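Sample A.
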Amino acid sequence: MAELADQAVIRRASRSDATDPHALPALSDVAAGQWRALAKRAIEANGYYQPEWELAVNASARGRTGAAALGAVNDSGQLIGLLPVVPMQRVYRIPLPALVAAEPYGTLCTPLLDRDAAEDAATGLLRQARISGAHALIVRTMSLEGPAMTAIEAALARDGLRPRVLHAWQRATLDATRDADDLLREALGAKKLKELRRQRYRLADHGAVRFAVARTPREVASALETFLALEAGGWKGRRGTALGQHAGDAAFIRRATSALAETGSCEIVTLHAGETPLAGGIVVRHQDRAFFFKIGIDERFAKFSPGAQLTLDLTRHLCADPAIASVDSTATPGHPMIDPIWRGRFAIGDVLIPLRRRDPLFAAIHAAVIMHRLAYDAARGTVHAIRNRRRKSS
């Protein structure tokens, strides 16, 4: 690491090092029909890079607007690859010539590659990045062992290059092809399931417990407002990070869920006791995969585990759906609620992709990303320590 840092300061970075933000088309200029068709043909599902979702993010979500389009087309002009990107300077505050996959609010940046031409699509994306002036491409929160990564590795190998995994972790996933009750018994065991059933019986004291699924645009719009209220009433609201607390974020999620509901690609699930909503979650669908975007709970009922209760019902709901084969939790590593329930895991990571052989600037970009993460981890540790002290003193 010290060697990387030394290489990074051989020459001071300047604004001239940054990629030209005008060298790539704006994401909003991509033909929606071509994008939608590519999403249907993608070799690996990513619900958060569907046009209905990502264009809504790009239009108004805080800190996530104004992305460019890294695209690849075949000889007939058909779109075969797409990755929304922003300059490195915007994400890392370092003016080096690299592009970063645009974060779509859903912690998955796997690019869309045509299943019938995945390697050519990856080659086209890399070529377009070079033309823009970039010396590296940073894809954060990417699936590391799926066919998209395999295609990128093959495209890089053509030029004698290899990607570098900067950070990797395992994320909870649900094998929705299995029987839900069998899966839950294996994951939680008889004792834990008995305790959850006891809590559910206690919830019934507040009214009949029911699990509702909103699917139509009208149903989704109504259920979304319930979800936003639940999220804002909990710890996210106290920290100021709830979607409904910021006009741009609220506009994004209303637009995205409405547009996806039009194509049957979004559901909002809610657990009620009588007329009282206890927990809600947003589920995005893409191909045979679902993505559990966010969850909100009424913390007044925390002792009854409303988040876990909702997830149990969601597990049964998705396992009963023949159209869904797997579900990405899109959760942080070691999530205390979802990890014990969904015991499947798949590899996610941040990947640094070189674009030129023997490129001295690549080492500087690599070192800058590593040092940025070290600083981020240190700051995050400090914040957690402060919060822990506050909790203990309150």
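Sample B.
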Amino acid sequence: MTSMSPSARPLLNRRLAEFGTTIFAEMSALAVRTGAINLGQGFPDTDGPEEVREAAVRALRDGRGNQYPPGPGVPELRTAVAAHQLRRYGLSFDPDTEVLVTAGATEAIAAALLALLEPGDEVVALEPYYDSYAACIAMAGGTRVPVTLRPSAADGEPAFRLDLDELRDAVTDRTRLLLLNTPHNPTGTVLTRDELAAVAELAVERDLLVVTDEVYEHLVFGTAEHVPIASFPGMRERTVTIGSAGKTYAFTGWKVGWVTAAPALLTAVRSAKQYLTYVASGPFQYAVAEALALPDSYLTAYRQDMEAKRDLLAAGLAEAGFGVYRPAGTYFVTTDIRPLGESDGFAFCRSLPERAGVVAVPNAVFYDHREEGAPFVRFAFCKRVPVLEEAVGRLKSLAG
């Protein structure tokens, strides 16, 4: 067997050369190795509603979904997604031509970008961004153009805010689409109705497509509200909206997501999606269809539970000496480590398991402009209360 010449072309496609092992894998491995509490990766430590889990078991036993489901997704789920969009937001979608089931939101993002981008197209994305955005834009041959959300206390409580002028200035003749995420991971920002109206006006004015990741749509707190950008004038025909069951029903391992879009857009996304997984999660699709039909009281209780956990963790982090940006949505708290005398989020997160027995994620991995994110660190609060209380107790050692 001959060895590869040192001068041979690298094995990894150059578009992916900048992407190594995800920070979530690194930090989760660190949690296992040190026995630390893992508040890095965003997955719950308890299952969702028992009736939804039983619906999956029933589907398995009844032989529904054990073989390939239909390519666009099982009709029951597509109908349930359409009913959800109509009931919650007044948006009417045809289950047969405007709804597509995907292997989680991550595949939906990949399929949308692979379908809609040509090499050289520019994609304006809000920074910091979920790490798969950058990789999917690269795989599609696009060029990402980050618009940075920056801390502001202009509206009272400190939060990360979008500069609409900066967004407008980022759009060029090469811009193909805007990639939005609201409620926003990792900052917890929820774009306001006025902000979304301005983004919609820009998209219509410049004839841009919009891909919007709304997986945290039911995790908004206080006076914040989630408003789909597809509901604004001129946006129904140019928007690909992405949703997911994992974040709302606490079954992240099932990988059931969906796309809603006008027929021409959906056909394009489906053309790419069919060559990724083709289909996935057969029995779980039937269960998620039942989950979407749960009464609103489930969503209210879920949101209240997460809001209480947010407040518990945010208060504990503040007591430990962090600067805290209390999120308006999602299940993550972004913190500033500079009040602790730190400035390097990577170094801080890699040492935190030994120092305090807790794992977090450095926000800088979600930035092109790494220096912008250097002092920020993200903690997840989608955990059981005793786990959060133990983590808070450990973190308070930093204050000393």
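B remarks: The mean pLDDT is 95. The longest helix spans residues 296-319.
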